[in-house]
Design a protein that fits this description.
With about 500 residues, this protein is α+β, with helices and mostly antiparallel strands. Helix content is about 15%, strand content about 30%. A hairpin with a 5-residue loop joins strand 28 and strand 29. Helix 4 crosses helix 7 and helix 6 crosses helix 7. The relative contact order is 0.12. The N terminus and C terminus are likely disordered.
């Protein structure tokens, strides 16, 4: 017992020595000590209160802010369910919380429940059909999820195992792409080094069952957040620049991810400036570094990014994203600690403050981590330092909302329907195309000012779900006099052909 206590005491002293050494050397300000101890030991940050939030934090004119949820220590990444409940990952607690949607309109979740527990440092989450995927530090798992009830509908199962989680940057961020594949970002084991595991400091992608894993981009030191621009389909990822090269170098990055590209780390920083500690890239003849699409201030630590639907917002938000800047830990003067908006224009990307005030002359009250837009159009922001979720809305009112579609229709088939095995899909798709044209489906799904897009339908609905919608559609979709055979034919067309290419 004495040996155990002695060992624990040594660990505590070593942990304490790091921030003290940084303080003495002038690398950090004394006001940063609590924040650093939060990072290293889990020491709680200052609690968020509604009064403090309204007093300290600022938004652009025309936006309003509220403290949506508090007392959520180390809250990290966010994802909305199809029914509008909010999932919150907490890697240090090993769990995922479900915040019931604000159905009563009081500006707070109706309940906070533990959805999954006992996980190994879960971070990224996303949905594909009725599967909830979770990126733990060492694997990807999935579980059936009933959106209508907000409950699990099966057992949690791994689909990708054996991911490395040693060293620094153990977290894994996962998203489902527009192509229905799983995208996974995982950071480096170190500040600057050559990795033994080629999968570290990369972005990968997998089939939904975890097969076919491939590295699609390298040289990404720690790309915690990524999202697709809706107007172009381009994939953008944030990236944290390396440490210990001074206060003002290197910049953190936003990279436009293209398959096969190398983004510089560990041999280049920022706009392809050679790293002073690594020497020449030994693979320089085979690869050239890709410069960032945008540079953030050094050590600002950009994490979550979300492209937003700017309907009802000022015109210059129509092509924009919000990025959570977690803030510096090793800068002599703290910097970052805010959410910024990025605006794509003819002259490039412009960065502006969006939610600021967490840093008041070195007094740090919060550290934004992730950004997600809810079905109500509001922006939800997690803060792992204050253990809080903030809600930003356009205008002044907090309005209750309902899901736009019936969540019972948002699912994939648990198993293929029996009739599918003997079906002539080619012939059925052609007859389904005729039905699609005969009933004028194009006028609602492809034409007009606000068409209801069917893009990616096969990634969201299975045959039985499509047939259910055709049999008992939600308003304003009309009820068509379709026989059972015609319902199947139209379902085959919708799930195997794009509406603008009805023929084989």
């Amino acid at each position: 017992m004495r040996k155990v206590l002695t060992g624990l005491l040594i660990i505590v002293l070593l942990l304490a020595a790091v921030p003290v050494a940084l303080l003495v050397s002038g690398t950090i300000d004394s006001s940063s000590l609590r924040m650093i101890l939060n990072v290293m030991t889990g020491l709680g940050g200052p609690a968020a209160t509604a009064g403090k939030v309204q007093q300290r934090l600022q938004l652009p004119e025309g936006f309003s802010l509220q403290l949506y949820a508090a007392d959520l220590p180390r809250a990290r990444f966010l994802r909305f369910t199809p029914a509008g409940d909010l999932l919150v990952s907490r890697p240090h607690s090993g769990d995922i919380l479900l915040l019931r949607r604000d159905a009563d309109g009081d500006g707070h979740p109706d309940a906070v429940e533990t959805l999954l527990a006992g996980l190994k440092r879960p971070m990224g989450m996303d949905f594909l059909g009725d599967w909830l995927y979770v990126a733990e530090s060492n694997r990807i798992g999935r579980v059936r999820f009933d959106s209508a009830s907000g409950a699990l509908a099966g057992d949690y199962e791994p689909v990708v195992e054996g991911l490395g989680d040693d060293g620094n940057h153990w977290s894994k961020t996962l998203r489902v792409g527009p192509d229905g594949l799983l995208y996974l970002a995982q950071g480096s084991t170190c500040n600057v080094c050559e990795e033994a595991d080629e999968r570290r400091a990369t972005m990968m992608r997998f089939a939904p069952d975890g097969s076919g894993g491939e590295i699609i981009a390298t040289g990404l030191r720690n790309s915690v957040g990524f999202d697709w621009a809706p107007w172009s389909g381009d994939l953008y990822a944030t990236d944290n620049g390396r440490d210990l090269l001074g206060d003002d170098f290197p910049p953190c990055e936003l990279n436009r991810i293209a398959v096969g590209n190398f983004y510089g780390w560990p041999y280049y920083n920022g706009a392809n400036i050679p790293d002073p500690d690594m020497g020449p890239d030994p693979l320089a003849a085979q690869r050239q570094p890709t410069a960032p699409a945008h540079g953030f201030r050094p050590h600002n630590a950009p994490l979550g990014i979300s492209f937003i639907d700017g309907a009802g917002w000022p015109q210059d938000y129509r092509r924009s994203a919000l990025v959570a800047l977690h803030g510096s830990w090793n800068r002599s003067t703290p910097d970052g600690y805010k959410v910024v908006s990025l605006h794509w224009g003819e002259d490039g990307i412009e960065e502006r403050d969006f939610l600021s005030g967490f840093n008041r002359e070195g007094d740090i009250s919060g550290r934004p981590v992730d950004v997600a837009q809810g079905p109500d159009g509001a922006i939800y922001i997690s803060d792992d330092y204050a253990g809080a979720i903030y809600r930003v809305s356009r205008g002044e009112d907090v309005v209750a909302w309902e899901p736009a579609v019936a969540v019972t229709a948002s699912r994939l088939d648990r198993q293929p329907p029996a009739w599918l095995a003997a079906a002539d899909l080619e012939a059925m798709a052609e007859r389904g195309a005729d039905l699609y044209g005969y009933y004028g489906c194009r006028s609602c799904h492809e034409e007009g000012q606000n068409p209801v897009s069917l893009a990616g339908l096969s990634q969201r609905l299975g045959y039985e779900a499509v047939i259910e919608v055709l049999r008992a559609p939600q308003s304003p979709m009309p009820v068509f006099p379709l026989s059972e055979a015609e319902q199947r034919e139209l379902a085959v067309f919708l799930l195997t052909r794009t509406p603008d290419q009805p023929g084989p």
